[in-house]
Amino acid sequence: MSAYSSVLTLDPVLPTQAATPTPRPRRRLWSALGRALLAWPFPLAVLLLWQLAATYEWVPSQILPSPATVAGTFADLWRSGELQDNTAISLWRVLWGFSAGATLGFVLGVAMGLSPLTKDYLYPTFKTFAQVPALGWLPLLMMLVGIDEALKIILIAKASLVPIALNTYKGLQNVPTTQIELARVYRFSRWQLLRHVVLPSAFPPIWNGVRYGLTHAWLALVGVELLASSEGLGFLIVYGRQLYQLDVVLAAVVVVGAIGWALDRVLAVIEKRLLRWRVEGF
Amino acid sequence: MTTASRAFRRDYRGLVPPALLLLFWFVAGRLGWTNPTLIPPPEQVLAVAWQYLGSGELFRALAASLARDLGGFALGALAGIGLGVLLGVSRWAERLLGPTFHTLKQISLFAWIPLLSIWLGYNDVSRVVFIAVSAFYPVALATFEGVRGVTRAQFEVARVHGFTARQRLTRLILPAAAPQILTGLNLGLVYAWLATIGAEFLLPAYGDIGLGDSVIRGRAAFNVALVIFGMLAIGGVGVALNRVFRRLERHLLRWRGDHR
Fold first, then answer.
1. How high is the ipTM of this complex?
2. Which of A168, B21, B41, B91 is the most interior residue, by most CB within 10 Å?
3. Full residue range of the structural domain in which residue B220 is found
């Protein structure tokens, strides 16, 4: 176990496997309930303070509209369908960009992880490419491909490609050599080696890369929509900003945050399901 | 050991893809395959670089960007370490603030920009605050995880030795969590640089200088050579910052003795 965990700690972006002993179910239920309840006082206090600040006009409502106003605006935007339309457009862009970036990133990561020759040639270039933030490419891309959908898809793809390629590569590299040697002893075929040794061992870091990739994709989407778009959630934010309607801005920000959170949750839940075997193994 | 000695012998094969790209770029420009206003030949980018270096404009822009970057990073990192330690040390703080923190960190960073622009205006204050916010999250998260990783046995030894609360923090918690905190700081530095460029793009102030400002101005003037040069400079600074930080990290962690 210690050798294995030292391999794991080489990579800072690996998921941390909490090794808490499982208490009895009834106690676990109560403590989970307690935790859930304790999460609320702080945000509620902030919300209350915010509402008080707005009611007593400690800050002008132009600068900070009250939570009630924001909620009202949210409802208005929902009723008019503006919110759903823009959200759908944003999600659609992320879906396309992320699929393209994830596929390319996975292929690149596998190529570098399994073939040392490919790695020697491509890794330094890839590393440099990864260092230039996605947004750094924006001005150049804007001139080369214009400000259409292609720009958004390319940028989102780039943002998700990097962490996925990097984690796939690192995950494949970090497969413990002892396990590979054991498989050799048992004369595993190449396919068996991949299917039963490499993939199970490399899966957690790869999946973590997918999570990072999706988070980065969402980040890049909002960035590109703020700079160059006429639809989408980022545009809604810019639009509200231009009209000095902070309630629109805040409502859109809440949706951006909620979707970012939901995307990550979905992947976390899938991870838990896919890794059920792992818990049983120990 | 063999891998270490191989790393010392420079591996030039990694230079093959960029060299090929450069060659292709050059040949394409020479043979007129590309529209020179859209994709200027490499020598034109070089000329722009020379001009920028000569006039000192590059250094002024670089200094302005780096000052914003490091100022925001320092603010964000300090706040991040503070919150991370608090959440790591106190169960109550973790239960009360943790969920809010984990939810807020999901808000896409750039979504803060319009809010900051209204609250603080289009100026360096809002830029630095934005950079601080972007460095804050990774540092806080890593510090929290590092402090959580301090074992009960280590705490008990500190108790046996009668450490005061202050000693516990400076002699036990911070050194024990140092590797994770440094990883977080490294990530924070990467984010801060991304945010610096983002802030210069998205919070433009008239007459301000910075690498991002130069690139945006180059785009407005359709000066592709300037934009390409600016991007290379931005990437170069990112790589350099990372290198310097890695050095510093190794130096700071040398007491651990086990660092590669």
1. 0.78
2. A168
3. 40-256
Tell the CATH topology of A73-281.
MetI-like fold (1.10.3720)
CA B67, CA B78: separation in Å to the nearest integer? 17
Q: Quote the pLDDT of residue B8.
A: 53
Instruction: Tell me the two tokens of residue B5.
Output: 């000695």
The tally of domains found in chain B comes to 1
Distance CA B150, CA B93 (A): 17
Question: What pLDDT score was predicted for residue A5?
Answer: 33
Q: What is the mean pLDDT of residues B123-140?
A: 94
* AA identity, residue B169: L
- Asked if B18 lies within 8 A of A125 by C-beta distance, the reply is yes
* Cross-chain CB nearest to A237 (options B111, B119, B242): B111
Report the residue from B16, B118, B197 with minimal CB separation from A135. Answer: B197
Cα–Cα distance measured from residue B40 to residue B28, given in angstroms and rounded to the nearest whole number: 10
Cβ A121–B224 below 8 Å, yes or no? Answer: no
B25: nearest Cα among B228, B170, B203, B184:
B228
Can you give the pLDDT at residue A177?
Answer: 85
- Quick check: A222 and B230 CB within 8 A? no
With a CB-CB cutoff of 8 Å, which residues 48-107 of chain B face chain A? 95-100, 103-104, 106-107
**How far is it, in rounded angstroms, from Cα B65 to Cα B216?**
14
Calculate the CA A49 to chain-centre distance. 31
